[in-house]
Amino acid sequence: MRLTIYTDYSLRVLIYLTTLSENERTNIKDIANAYGISKNHLMKVILQLGKLGLIETTRGRNGGLRLAVKPSDINIGSVVRQTEDDFNIVECFSKEQNKCSISPVCSLKGVLHQALMAYLDVLDQYTLADLTTNGSLLKELLQDKDPTLL
Amino acid sequence: MRLTIYTDYSLRVLIYLTTLSENERTNIKDIANAYGISKNHLMKVILQLGKLGLIETTRGRNGGLRLAVKPSDINIGSVVRQTEDDFNIVECFSKEQNKCSISPVCSLKGVLHQALMAYLDVLDQYTLADLTTNGSLLKELLQDKDPTLL
């Protein structure tokens, strides 16, 4: 029942970007350092968040990363639906991989699908703004690295 | 967002056992053959279902496996809670593994926990009996192996 590390890091990047001041930009290295995670893992995440139109990347001296959309317009359910690449809760969710002999008459798939929808429905109720109401504390933890808070 | 193969197989074993006639017993080989899955994978599953008091195993010539509890008394949410060994949706769900720097002030964990509870709440609404209302068809697919149904 884990989300992929890819979805986890996507959400962390978005949370990080909410702590930037207006017009401020950041880079992969700073985000990786703030969370103590690998830059390589973040490269793919950043690329995908850019493709989804959630972040804006600018090259050059004053370039960098920032949110392309207001936090209140970024729905968490929508982010997870787009970044999580495996919603095949059990084998029969995948047409290609399914070999379960009872699939034609089994009710389990429907029940698990209903459960998955309930899970995503909860995430649909939240935006990135809802997750970052502690903005100043998040900023301290991510950017200022005040040792008393770490 | 996958359940482990262990939970998947646990549910399949329970479904299989509902297709037995009263006093009939089966064995790991027949279950493995019916689903086309490995006997070795099933060994651990059977052991755990026995420990949970859901199945009864008897040794000897007329021995074998059968349900120890009525299907209507086996709650699917309860089975999944007990067989799924990793509900750590993201890193911060595990006290031991968590290294995320924003944990003390991050709201994401609470939101994901709420989503997980919604997922399990759906499963709590179903028993094994609800999943096996197509009993005769399940039996044909699992035991009789009628080629027109496979």
Cα-atom radius of gyration of chain A:
18 Å
- Report, as a whole number of angstroms, the end-to-end distance of chain A: 29 Å
**Largest sheet: spatial strand order of chain A:** 1-2
The largest inter-chain interface, given as chain pair and residues per side, is: A-B, 50 and 50 residues
Shape of chain A: elongated
Instruction: Let me know the largest β-sheet of chain A.
Output: 2 strands, antiparallel
Q: How would you characterize this protein structure?
A:
The structure is a homodimer of 150-residue chains. With 150 residues, the first copy, chain A, is mainly alpha-helical. Chain A is 49% helix and 5% strand. The first copy, chain A, is built from seven helices and two strands; from the N terminus they run αααββαααα. A two-stranded antiparallel ribbon of chain A has the order 1-2. In chain A, a hairpin with a 5-residue loop joins β1 and β2. In chain A, α1 (5-18) runs antiparallel to α4 and α4 (76-83) crosses α5. The longest helix of chain A has 17 residues, at 108-124. The radius of gyration of chain A is 18 Å and the shape is elongated.
Keywords:
150 residues, disordered C terminus, 7 helices, mainly alpha, elongated, homodimer, two-stranded antiparallel sheet
Give a quick precis of the structure.
With 150 residues, chain A is mainly alpha-helical.
What is the fold's blueprint, element by element?
The structure is a homodimer of 150-residue chains.
Chain A: H1 5-18, H2 28-35, H3 39-51, E1 55-58, E2 64-67, H4 76-83, H5 108-124, H6 128-131, H7 135-144
Antiparallel strand pairs in A: 1-2
Helix pairs in contact in A: 1-3, 1-4, 2-3, 4-5
